[in-house]
Design goal:
The complex is a heterodimer of chains A (258) and B (274). Chain A is of the alpha/beta class. Chain A has helices at residues 62-69, 92-98, 113-124, 128-141, 158-171, 188-203, 215-221, 239-244, 248-257, and strands at 22-33, 36-47, 51-55, 77-82, 85-86, 99-102, 176-180, 207-211, 224-229, 232-238. In chain A, strand 4 (77-82) and strand 5 (85-86) form a beta hairpin. The longest helix of chain A is centred in the C-terminal third of the chain and has 16 residues, at 188-203. Chain A is globular. In chain B, helix 5 runs parallel beside helix 7 and helix 7 (137-168) runs parallel beside helix 12 (228-257). By secondary structure, chain B is an all-alpha fold. The chains are: A alpha/beta (258), B mainly alpha (274). The A-B interface holds A 34, 70-74, 92-97, 100-101, 103, 105-107, 109-110, 120, 123-124, 165, 168-169, 171-172 and B 171-172, 174-182, 185, 189, 263, 265-268, 270.
């Protein structure tokens, strides 16, 4: 039986949760990929603001969960709410602009870094005369240097490309950023600086929901944490509590990876 | 009477040598030679070559009799029926070439080919060639045959290339979708490449027409006794006609096919569904 987060009542029925601290609330969410059940009767809430870290063994359902939150996939059953509203009630493109997604490996779009960011701004309908300013602001907020703007995006290092992926998502002006193992393909040093960038984005008011396998950093940086295993929530709550939990599956996992 | 006769009406029939069944039997010697070569070199094609030769004889003989019948009856609906059958067979063939030949894809390819070939035929028939009566099978059937044959190859290539691009570009397409882009925007490069790939054979044949390849229709008209200049004029019209149908079909197929890769909620499907 998954341990439910103690911060609030999970939303039941159709009424919106009274608590507006929630970015997302999930009720009885089940997801299947092919023949495999990736998420099973998931009930949880994720707070607005700060960094929420999803962790757990591979195949635990972290990516499957993130993909539901900006509707890259829809669950087989169950309901997901964003800001109290069912996510199905948002026009899907609007939801995706408000809830950005950063993939494990960023795929460069054709052209330069500036082209990549301009395309993203165009998709979001950013007024053309403000694109330039937004772009410079965004580039510095993700720790890229201005000279990279004219560089062919397909010729960047993995770390630079990952930052372009984040910058691209930021160009659409999201409130929330979902990140699927953003440091998985990076060396430890690059991963550290990337996580600092993520931290600074959260400080500027962005809600971050991040799947991560770098648990020491996650423990230090995140405000909220959810451990998933085999598609169910093992533990969820404020990060300090979760990482101190004596739940046997959580302890066994932490002992194995740290 | 022009200085160079464009048509030789009375002489055309006399100028063409009629081939007897004996002549055909003699020509079949080449089939035996090809089969013999295949057998000697162990190509494993002997059977296919012989079956192919037999099918050639049977299919063409049947078509010959069907055409004789259609020409003799001279009814517009028979001509239209023949055109519809040609289109349906071509659409089926283009669909069966695909890795995922669904009924929906058959519908897409058929409709794209109908529009691409149909509009072209109507334009060529009503504006350029103007046969009398309008349904004269002597013009409509050969012209439509060429149009549909090319449209079929175009549709086949376009669909195959788009499926390939969509498989190869899943990450890119999802990256666009995740930013809030429409499926149309997310697939614009894949679609562009598919359209391009589908038109390349046509563009290539335009470049070498008459130099490397002497088109079948022109050759046929010359053998039948038409002046080469008249044959060339027809061939020019045919090439332009093929450009029209190829461009239309090659543009429509990827445009419509791409929708099958997405759900109603603009999510990428694992595979296009029926």
């Amino acid at each position: 039986m998954p341990v439910l987060p103690e911060r609030s009542e999970p939303s039941r029925g159709t009424e919106a949760p009274s608590d507006h601290d929630h970015a997302f609330s999930l009720h009885d969410v089940r997801q299947v990929r092919g023949e495999v059940v990736t998420l099973e009767s998931l009930d949880m809430t994720l707070p607005r603001g700060g960094i929420t870290t999803l962790f757990g063994p591979s195949g635990a359902g972290k990516s499957a969960l993130l993909r539901l939150l900006n509707r890259l996939d829809d669950p087989v059953t169950g309901e997901i709410r964003y800001g109290g509203q069912p996510i199905m009630s948002f026009p899907v493109r609007e939801l995706r602009r408000r809830v950005g997604f950063v993939f494990q490996v960023a795929t460069p779009f054709p052209g330069t870094v500036a082209d990549n960011l301009t395309v993203a701004a165009g998709i979001a309908g950013v007024a053309p005369d403000t694109v330039e300013a937004t772009m410079h602001e965004t580039v510095s907020s993700v720790g890229l240097t201005e000279d990279l703007l004219t560089r062919d995006a397909s010729r960047l290092s993995v770390g630079q490309l990952q930052r372009v992926g984040i910058a691209r998502a930021l160009m659409t002006g999201p409130e929330t950023l979902l990140m699927d193992e953003p440091t998985a393909s990076l060396d430890p040093e690059t991963a550290d600086t990337l996580l600092q960038t993520v931290s600074s984005l959260a400080e500027r008011g962005l809600t971050i929901v991040m799947a991560s396998h770098r648990l020491e950093e996650a423990e230090r940086l995140s405000h909220y944490a959810v451990m998933l295993d085999a598609g169910v929530v093992v533990e969820a709550g404020p990060a300090v509590d979760v990482f101190a939990s004596d739940h046997p599956r959580l302890r066994a996992f932490l002992d194995r990876v740290t | 009477m022009p200085a160079i006769p464009v048509q030789l009406p009375g002489e055309a029939a006399r100028a063409m040598i009629d081939l007897s069944w004996l002549d055909l039997t003699l020509a079949a010697g080449l089939v035996l030679m090809a089969a013999g070569l295949s057998r000697r070199q162990g190509l494993g094609l002997t059977r296919d070559l012989l079956v192919g030769a037999i099918r050639t004889v049977v299919q063409l003989a049947l078509v010959g009799y069907v055409l004789v019948y259609i020409f003799a009856w001279d009814r517009w609906y028979l001509v239209v029926l023949a055109l519809v059958v040609m289109l349906a067979v071509a659409a089926r063939t283009a669909t069966d070439r695909q890795d995922r030949p669904t009924r929906r894809l058959y519908g897409i390819l058929g409709l794209a080919m109908l529009i691409g070939s149909g509009l072209t035929l109507v334009y060529i028939g009503a504006v350029v060639v103007r046969p009398d009566p309008w349904y004269d099978p002597r013009y409509l059937i050969p012209l439509f045959g060429m149009i549909v044959g090319n449209a079929m190859n175009t549709a086949s290539l376009a669909a195959e290339r788009l499926a390939g691009e969509m498989d190869a570009r899943r990450a890119e397409v999802e990256a666009y979708l995740a930013l809030g882009a429409s499926p149309t925007f997310a697939t614009r490069d894949a679609v562009r490449r598919a359209v391009r790939a589908s038109m390349i054979p046509m563009v290539n044949s335009l470049m070498v027409v008459g130099i490397v390849a002497l088109p079948g229709m022109m050759t046929g008209q010359i053998i039948a006794g038409a002046s080469p200049l008249a044959a060339v004029r027809y061939q020019i019209v045919v090439m332009f006609m093929l450009m029209g149908s190829v461009a239309l079909t090659g543009t429509l197929v990827p445009m419509w096919y791409r929708a099958t890769f997405f759900t109603a909620a603009e999510q990428l499907r694992p595979q296009p569904v029926d």
